[in-house]
Amino acid sequence: MKLILELSGEHPAIPVEEVKAILPVFEQNTQVLIAEAPSIEIINRFAYTHAAMTYIGTCPADKESFIQMLEDLDITSPEPFCGRVKKMADHGMDASSGELERLIGYHVKGRVSVSSPERVFRVVIAGGRCYFGELTWELDRSPYHTRKPGNRPFFHPGVMMPRMIRALINMSGALPGEWILDPFCGTGGTLIEASLIGCNAAGTDADREMIAGSRKNLSAAMAGVADARHLPFPDNSIDHVVSDLPYGQSVTIIGNGLNDLYHQALTEIKRVVKKGNHSVLVTHQDIRPLAHQHCEIIGYFEQRVHKSLTRRILVIR
Description:
CATH superfamily of the largest domain: Vaccinia Virus protein VP39
InterPro entries: RlmKL-like_Mtase, RlmKL-like_Mtase_CS, SAM-dependent_MTases_sf
Domain Ribosomal RNA large subunit methyltransferase K/L-like methyltransferase: 149-289
Pfam family, one: UPF0020
Strand content: 25-35%
CATH class of the largest domain: Alpha Beta
Number of helices: 9
Oligomer: single chain
Largest sheet: 7 strands, mixed
Order of helices and strands: EHEEEHEHEEHHEHEHEEHEHEE
Helix content: 25-40%
Number of strands: 14
Low-confidence stretches: none
Organism: Methanospirillum hungatei JF-1 (strain ATCC 27890 / DSM 864 / NBRC 100397 / JF-1)
Structural class: alpha/beta
CATH architecture of the largest domain: 3-Layer(aba) Sandwich
């Protein structure tokens, strides 16, 4: 099915990349993608997609073209409906949102119900284009809130939020049934998010307390104490690695410092991950020169968390 995806504006690239790693994308605009999906259910896995619409049509972002599109579509709705409009910062539309919503109500045949519609026709306007569809899915943030680190049985400061972890897993291209490894699993956030989308998840950590904590947070967790420089997995046995690498503060650093740890961990990641598959690593310094020695860098992104912390995200193969 052809879908219009309305994306979060929290980061310019991550919302796009997590979708592109999973679905074919035919068109991209500001916070908008047109993608092909096997079903609407697959959208549940995306962390930074706000809404999904079944594709109906598209046109230039001007009132005259919008009216012409509605007339050409000649839609009839047996169920009560309403129109909704979302304008992105670069929309370029010469008509107000209210005017466009009224035009939808006028041109779609059927009963308009603003208060209790059974169908919502939604237009997203971005980059001088109108993307028109029927709303079929909206993001529910409450499960992510429930899984926030502070709400888990075992808490440790400095861990990533569930939505970011989910996006990183998606960026790896992981599919249900595949094996995801986090060799620095900490409190188990990656294991939780991977399990929720049907992946098999394994985690290791050099810190026994972290492993005990991850098992508290996910009772079925396959987690064990291990040195990331000497992973207890056969060659080519893991589909993807997704991990937030340690950076020295309140973590167990093994070996001869961070650079040595990163170097040897990358060697092991390359060994255990199946050839050609993608992995996603998060660091707090730019390790691209080091990573280049071990793998191909597919993507690099930065996310500013606060004044003293910027995450560097590497997609590697």
